[in-house]
């Protein structure tokens, strides 16, 4: 890859992530939504750990559920970070120059499309995002909760994010049900270290949060899997665009998004993460926001 010193503009056609820069969208609404997502997960973890599990008299019940819930929370937040900080497949800005088009060696009669908003050559199935101010390859939609577009390069992490959030939401609801049942059967003062009114309020808010997040992320997860299996993005479906590309078979679509044959790497948000590359960027002057 070509590396450009921090503070200089990369040459046209070189992806920003290959220039030692971190992909990040400076959108106020998206940043607020992303922070809210983290705070809500931290709140759920606080209630589950300190209100329900630690005061429990059943040691193994607390340990097993605590480890499981916190592992799912870490996987969910890691998937969120990978979705937010991964280039979704941005087309280089301003590459619609005469020199660049001459290098494409177009055949007679071959048609290419230019985006008038970012002055770039639009590949097939690319769409312009008004928030990212870039054309994104296989853009599915722009999600404020991850402060990024969901596209060709980060759809896998977005699917994992929705899956893990749905799982911890379901887990939190199940734990709330057991906690209410045990508190009603016994003494409210003994089932939590907090006062009964505070315990009830915290658990009610957790139930509402868990129900809303479970509904939203489960629907989104199903929609994403359906789109991947049909090799069709949400924008293409809404616009009822007739496919001009050869659609992949369902299993081929899954393998193209998650990479290779089915394995545990499919559900691992840390797959492909290079710590050495980050350290290299830090030595070169630190990462820089790209958008």
UniProtKB/TrEMBL annotation:
Q: Which PROSITE patterns match?
A: DHHC (PS50216)
Q: How does it sit in the membrane?
A: Multi-pass membrane protein
Classify the source by domain of life. Eukaryota
Q: Which residues cross the membrane?
A: 31-53, 59-77, 157-180, 200-221
The Enzyme Commission number assigned here is: 2.3.1.225
Subcellular location, record wording? Membrane
Record's GO cellular component terms: membrane
Q: Which GO terms describe its molecular function?
A: protein-cysteine S-palmitoyltransferase activity
**Major enzyme class:** transferase
One Pfam family per UniProt: DHHC
Keywords from UniProt, A to Z, are:
Acyltransferase, Membrane, Transferase, Transmembrane, Transmembrane helix
Question: Which reaction is catalysed here?
Answer: L-cysteinyl-[protein] + hexadecanoyl-CoA = S-hexadecanoyl-L-cysteinyl-[protein] + CoA
Q: What is known of its domains?
A: The DHHC domain is required for palmitoyltransferase activity.
Family the entry assigns:
Belongs to the DHHC palmitoyltransferase family.
Q: What is the protein name for this chain?
A: Palmitoyltransferase
What organism is the protein native to? Answer: Melopsittacus undulatus
């Amino acid at each position: 890859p070509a590396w450009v010193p921090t503070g200089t503009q990369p040459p046209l056609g070189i992806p920003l992530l290959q220039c030692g820069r971190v992909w990040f969208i400076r959108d106020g609404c998206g940043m607020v939504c992303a922070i809210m997502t983290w705070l809500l997960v931290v709140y759920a973890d606080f209630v589950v750990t300190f209100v329900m599990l630690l005061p429990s008299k059943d040691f193994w019940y607390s340990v097993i559920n605590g480890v499981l819930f916190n592992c799912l929370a870490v996987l969910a937040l890691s998937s969120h970070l990978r979705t937010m900080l991964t280039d979704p497949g941005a087309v280089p800005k301003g590459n619609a120059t005469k020199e660049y088009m001459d290098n494409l060696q177009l055949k007679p009669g071959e048609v290419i499309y230019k985006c008038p908003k970012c002055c770039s050559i639009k590949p097939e199935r690319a769409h312009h995002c008004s928030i990212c101010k870039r054309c994104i390859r296989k853009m599915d939609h722009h999600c404020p909760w991850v402060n990024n577009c969901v596209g060709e390069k980060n759809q896998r992490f977005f699917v994992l994010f929705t899956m893990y959030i749905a799982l911890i939401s379901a887990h939190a609801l199940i734990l709330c049900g057991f906690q209410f049942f045990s508190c009603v059967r016994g003494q409210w003062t003994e089932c939590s270290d907090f006062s009964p009114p505070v315990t009830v309020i915290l658990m009610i808010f957790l139930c509402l949060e868990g129900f809303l997040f479970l509904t939203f992320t489960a629907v989104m997860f199903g929609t994403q899997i359906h789109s991947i299996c049909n090799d069709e993005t949400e924008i293409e479906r809404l616009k009822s665009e007739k496919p001009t590309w050869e659609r992949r078979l369902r299993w081929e679509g899954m393998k193209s998004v998650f990479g290779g044959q089915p394995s545990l790497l499919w559900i691992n948000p840390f797959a492909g993460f290079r710590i050495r590359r980050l350290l290299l960027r830090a030595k070169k002057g630190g990462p820089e926001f790209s958008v």
